[in-house]
Write a structure and sequence with these properties.
two-stranded antiparallel sheet, alpha+beta, HIT family, subunit A, about 170 residues, globular
């Protein structure tokens, strides 16, 4: 097996942009729900129809996928995934939580910076049958979910407020 990068040359990484204070309609400061030294959590900019308020947990440093993620980053991402899962279950009107993590185009990866999806689940939401139905979500729909999770997690919501040993890619 040969591992190769799929990230285009000069890739303008949205998850690194946020950490650098560069925002757009799909990536706003209010989307950030928790910042830890090696990982952060944000409301996903796209939701599947039956899973509103889904979250992405992202490594602070830029690594394309799971294959080359340094273990300490992977552990930090996993720890924050667990915190977010508990917060979702505690604050959303859902009945369960699922996670997914995609690598390479064949694995449905479409942002070239490692992230884990954390989905609120409800009976009969058909998450795995509706993979092509994710759509962009307006900011005003994202904000209430972000505030619920942030209120439970009680971590910094800005990158200035959480010390890190890492720097995002090339910025
Ligand atoms: Zn990045």
């Amino acid at each position: 097996m040969t591992l190769r990068s799929h990230e285009p040359a000069g890739y303008d990484c949205p998850f690194c942009r946020m950490q650098s204070g560069l925002f757009d309609e799909h990536n706003q400061p209010s989307d950030v729900v928790a910042v830890a030294p090696h990982a952060y959590a944000r409301i996903a900019p796209k939701w599947w129809p039956g899973n509103p308020g889904a979250v992405l947990v992202v490594s602070r440093a830029h690594h394309e996928n799971l294959y080359t993620l340094p273990p300490e980053m992977g552990h930090a991402v996993w720890d924050l995934v667990q915190e977010v899962a508990v917060a979702i279950r505690a604050t959303y009107p859902c009945e369960g939580v699922s996670i997914r993590q995609h690598n390479e185009p064949a694995g449905d990866q479409d942002v070239w910076h490692l992230h884990v999806h954390v989905f609120p689940r409800s009976v009969d939401d058909r998450l795995y049958e509706r993979h092509r139905e994710a759509t962009w979500v307006a900011l005003e729909e994202r904000v209430p979910y972000a505030d619920l999770l942030a209120g439970h997690l009680k971590r910094p919501r800005t990158f200035d407020g959480a010390a890190t040993a890492d720097r995002p890619c090339g910025r």
